[in-house]
Amino acid sequence: MARQTASRTASFPSLRPAGENLGAEVAGIDLSLPPDQQDFAFILQALHRYGVIFFRGQQLTPEQLAAFSRCFGELDIHHMTEHVFPHLPQVRVLSNVKKDGVSIGITRGGMHWHSDLSYKPQPALVTLLYGIECPPTGADTQFADMYAAFAGLPEARRRKLQALRAVHDRNFRYSALYPGRPPLTAEQVAKVPPVEHPLVRVHPATGRPALFVAKDVVSHIVGMPEAESRALIDELEAFATRPDRIYSHKWRPGDLVVWDNRCTLHRATPYDPQYRRTLYRTQVRGEAPIAMAS
Ligand SMILES: O=C(O)CCC(=O)C(=O)O
Ligand SMILES: [Fe+2]
After folding, report:
1. Is 19 within a domain?
2. What is the separation, in whole angstroms, between the first and last Cα of the chain?
3. 168 is catalytic
4. Within a domain: residue 292?
5. Is residue 116 among the annotated active site residues?
6. Catalytically annotated residue among 170, 197, 262, 266
7. What is this structure's pTM?
8. What is the rounded CA–CA span in Å between residue 242 and residue 246?
């Protein structure tokens, strides 16, 4: 407790936006102890305002990462159960590092634009990623602002889109996205059957509508002819991920990035495999996406 008081009085949290609307650094908070109510309110407000927030220079054990993550809600245990800490399966390792020829973590995941677990009935709410080893160049995690994407469309278009529903399917392009991995087993596929979500979802905390689409995960728009559906999905993702709507996080060890899957897409980017990259990851259980009132 003494330490908490000391670190809390030493500095007040502050915000350094990375751009106008997407991405902001929260400075002045040591996350090794769960934040007090006031600091957490500041953090949550920043997340709701900027969609992606990050903290630099943190020193967290997997337990401390899990403890902070729990402030946002109940933690998920990922349905792919490899590469978790055996005593703490809520924390997963992403890494290209091999020990005795075996990867210590998930390698090269998420290189397509996506919202975590969008292919589940209750997709992930918030994801936390904590950098342990980071290449000096490359390997950014990129984020797209899905509020801005929706708001950027003409009014008549928005009205049409908000009535549509999209099918998210984990298995849709799995083998194309992960050529190095064996195809999902029948059992794995059965765990994640295709699911229908509104194409435009309302964020319950901000009340703002966001596009909810990703071309490699959404197989089709319900009730729309195949070619038209594919063209629409591809067009919307391209529109949403235009460079001016992207925040690219350049990792340093000790960075903790928190993103809100309800209003952003993200993807991992390539890097030179001579560099080591290791991150710890947690995921907060979400809610069923909410459609706009028609
Ligand atoms: O490795 C990254 O930069 C991001 C990976 C990803 O998509 C995730 O952790 O959800
Ligand atoms: Fe992801």
Report:
1. yes
2. 50
3. no
4. no
5. yes
6. 266
7. 0.94
8. 7
